[in-house]
């Protein structure tokens, strides 16, 4: 299940609108011009992701494991301060399960560099597929969209776009295509600025992986983003719920990743 959790981490939704290089256009969109909305949101998403490397922030990773009755049988809670460093980030574990982290835990998490791996996959686009196996970005890039009108989300006017596996013909095979054929959901794109404000996705049928040795029965992803300053929007909360079987072991897990205290650093910071 470690592989499933690694694949379905924060990078899941940040690639939701995989884009070519470029910065957002200031042009206003006709409210029902779906192609224009998606194209602008792709460019803005690319810019927002690139901007992440200029911020120090807090990152919290919470995991709960359940038995088949829904009883919690395991928990883990890690709190980090993440700082841009060189071409990546320095990840300092500060608290583990509510208490100050021990030096051995800090060293282990620093070597694991979990966020660095997510961010490299995020920047790599399709080139990150070999490392990450599957990301929601690939799913949404392959899926068709339906314009559902405008909605107010957390006080912000947004365009809502829905996607589903119906009538979708993936251009690539493998694991990404399996997810594409099995998931449905929605995106909320801000009317002002075309930022990805939220995303929801869930499976509509089980997915077999690893030569059918493993099966994902249920997968649900929820992401919320918000402004962190200077016109940049970044994720604030990513929740992933999974019910899977790995060989003969049943896994029920909830992962919650939260991001806070964003601080823009100057180039020398």
Terminal CA distance:
37 Å
Gyration radius, to the nearest Å?
18 Å
Specify the structural class: alpha+beta
Low-confidence stretches: 1-31, 126-134
Multimerization state:
single chain
- Main beta-sheet strand count, sense and barrel state: 12 strands, antiparallel
Label the overall shape: globular
Helix count?
Answer: 8
Mean pLDDT: 79
Count all strands and give the number.
12
Helical percentage: 10-25%
Give the helices and strands as they follow along the chain: HHHEEEEHHHHEEHEEEEEE
**Beta fraction of the residues?**
over 45%
Labels describing this entry:
twelve-stranded antiparallel β-sheet, 8 helices, disordered N terminus, alpha+beta, 269 residues, single chain
């Amino acid at each position: 299940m470690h592989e499933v959790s690694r694949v379905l981490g924060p990078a899941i939704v940040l690639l939701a609108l995989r884009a070519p290089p470029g910065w957002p256009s200031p042009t206003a969109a006709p409210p029902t011009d779906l192609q224009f909305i998606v194209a602008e949101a792709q460019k803005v998403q690319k810019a927002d992701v690139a901007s992440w490397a200029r911020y120090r922030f807090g990152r919290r990773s919470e995991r709960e494991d359940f038995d088949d009755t829904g009883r919690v049988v395991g928990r883990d809670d890690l709190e980090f301060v993440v700082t841009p460093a060189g071409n990546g980030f320095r990840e300092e574990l500060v608290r583990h399960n509510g208490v100050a982290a021990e030096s051995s835990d800090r060293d282990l998490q620093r070597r694991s560099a979990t966020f660095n791996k997510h961010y490299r996959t995020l920047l790599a686009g399709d080139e990150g597929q070999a490392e990450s196996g599957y990301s929601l970005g690939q799913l949404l890039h392959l899926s068709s969209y339906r314009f559902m009108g405008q909605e107010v989300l957390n006080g912000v006017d947004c365009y809502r776009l829905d996607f589903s596996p119906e009538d979708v013909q993936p251009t690539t095979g493998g694991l990404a295509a399996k997810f594409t054929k099995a998931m449905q959901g929605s995106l909320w794109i801000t009317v002002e600025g075309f930022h990805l404000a939220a995303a929801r996705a869930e499976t509509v049928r089980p997915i077999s992986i690893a030569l059918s040795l493993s099966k994902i029965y249920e997968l649900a992803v929820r992401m919320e983003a918000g402004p962190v300053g200077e016109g940049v929007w970044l994720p604030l909360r990513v929740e992933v719920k999974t019910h899977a079987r790995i060989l003969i072991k049943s896994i029920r897990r909830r992962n919650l990743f939260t991001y806070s205290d964003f601080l823009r650093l100057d180039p020398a910071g």
